[in-house]
Design a protein that fits this description.
8 helices; five-stranded antiparallel sheet; alpha+beta; 41% helix
């Protein structure tokens, strides 16, 4: 891990990831306070920067790159989601005054801003619009986790593979190809962890989806070429 000084490009007010995040309703003064108090850190691929069970000292905002959020259960890694640019991690642990319930590991080289707990809480208490956005996002994440658990219980592994690829196609949409297809670049082990199945089973089902021309496979990259077909495969309608 290497820590960098805060360049102007990573000040909150000039951040090109600001729009659509929890912070986009803050005033210039509030954004400046966060900028002055945060640190921006570059992490190499495979670096764990949130450790499950550790005491939260602040929140992490992803400026560049993608992050695997996971927990350990039954002796194996259970991946909760893939976080991307603009996502905020660690805030629910601070709100609950509990240890981090998950770990977070970079899937590629990332730049991540760390906002100390005190500054985050002060901003939460002084800005009602920010507090509302944080609450809405917490509820949205809870809905996603509930839906994920329901899918794990009710859908077959084949259906979960298709559903996971559809979800990841949105996360990796900015990395898509010119013809609108989305390229998902994850290790097979991580993809299997998201689906909740063995790596061997995942590889077999990916081959079936490829035979049906729903996806393409280039090395470890999975290219989603037919979203409607995947929706039918996942029995979403």
């Amino acid at each position: 891990m290497s820590e960098s000084k805060l360049p102007l490009a990573l000040s909150c007010a000039s951040c090109n990831k600001l729009t659509g995040t929890m912070f986009d309703s803050l005033s210039a003064t509030e954004l400046e306070k966060i900028s002055n108090g945060k640190s921006c850190i570059t992490y190499k691929k495979g670096n764990v920067f949130i450790h499950e069970g550790s005491r939260p000292n602040g929140v992490f905002c992803i400026h560049h790159g993608k992050v695997k959020v996971y927990r350990h259960g039954d002796g194996r890694e259970q991946i909760i989601r893939i976080a991307k640019e603009g996502d905020l991690l660690g805030y629910r642990a601070i709100l609950a005054e509990e240890p981090y319930p998950v770990s977070a590991e970079t899937l590629e080289d990332c730049s991540i801003c760390f906002i100390p707990k005190q500054i985050f809480l002060e901003t939460l208490f002084t800005s009602s619009s920010f507090a509302q956005k944080v609450l809405r996002e917490a509820c949205r994440e809870l809905d996603i986790m509930t839906e994920s658990l329901t899918n794990m219980a009710q859908k077959t592994v084949r259906e979960r593979v298709a559903l996971t690829l559809l979800t990841l196609s949105d996360t990796y949409g900015e990395d898509g190809l010119e013809d609108g297809r989305s390229t998902i670049n994850l290790k097979r082990e991580d993809l299997a962890g998201l689906v909740g199945t063995a790596t061997e089973t995942l590889i077999r089902l990916l081959a079936e989806l490829k035979e049906e021309n729903l996806i393409e496979i280039e090395g470890r990259k999975v290219i989603v070429r037919d979203k409607q077909g995947l929706k039918r495969f996942a029995k979403l309608y």
